[in-house]
Inverse folding.
């Protein structure tokens, strides 16, 4: 069997303990994991002809994950990137998704969530090339929102707190909580980073104007 037929996951993390445990997790489900403790070492070894994706830590000494992602784009390395970070504040998440990240997972991560995201990334290559199906589904979900739910969605993905949204819309924080839960459910978003990504893809918000 040629290596091109294998499913490969590049794992880039300067924390050796986290690197080892992630590699073990991936190999336990039959995936080939290639570990790197620096962004530069990964970039030198990266081969985008493989059926592969990249698990990328955000904060690393020297070259951080967002810089690695940018350099991948500069070099034409078109592999799905999943960020794994203990620092998932909205500006970092937005920047990652704006540059084309597949997913953003917070540390300490749920093992099943990480494995599901990796499998989706590995199967997304064909979907990404074939087209528009995902975009149509996203538009249908947006169309299902009520006007009030959309009123909550936009400031939510812009980085405003529930209290700030409540003041903007002149409603209670409890009501914002309720709308937020309904928006997440209708949009089929498990986490806020998912919702941010959907809003950017749909053109609802300008990434450069987010907080």
């Amino acid at each position: 069997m040629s290596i091109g037929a294998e499913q490969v996951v590049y794992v880039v993390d300067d924390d050796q303990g986290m690197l080892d445990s992630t590699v073990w997790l991936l190999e336990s489900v039959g995936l080939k994991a290639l570990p790197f403790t620096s962004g530069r070492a990964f970039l030198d070894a990266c081969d985008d002809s493989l059926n592969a994706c990249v698990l990328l830590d955000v904060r690393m000494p020297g070259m951080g994950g967002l810089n690695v992602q940018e350099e991948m784009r500069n070099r034409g390395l078109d592999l799905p990137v999943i960020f794994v970070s203990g620092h998932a504040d909205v500006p970092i998440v937005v920047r990652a998704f704006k540059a084309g990240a597949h997913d953003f997972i917070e540390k300490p991560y749920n093992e099943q969530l990480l494995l599901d995201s990796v499998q989706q990334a590995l199967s997304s290559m064909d979907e990404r090339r074939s087209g528009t199906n995902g975009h149509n589904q996203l538009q249908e979900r947006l169309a299902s929102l009520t006007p009030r739910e959309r009123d909550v969605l936009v400031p939510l993905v812009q980085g405003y707190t529930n209290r700030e949204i409540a003041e903007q819309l002149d409603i209670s924080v409890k009501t914002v909580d309720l709308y937020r839960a309904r928006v997440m459910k209708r949009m089929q978003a498990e986490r806020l980073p998912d919702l941010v990504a959907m809003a950017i893809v749909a053109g609802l918000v300008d990434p450069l104007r987010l907080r």
Remarks:
- The CA atoms of residues 80 and 121 lie 6 Å apart.
- The chain has ten helices and five strands.
- Strands lie at 7-12, 32-36, 51-57, 81-85, 103-106.
- The mean pLDDT is 86.
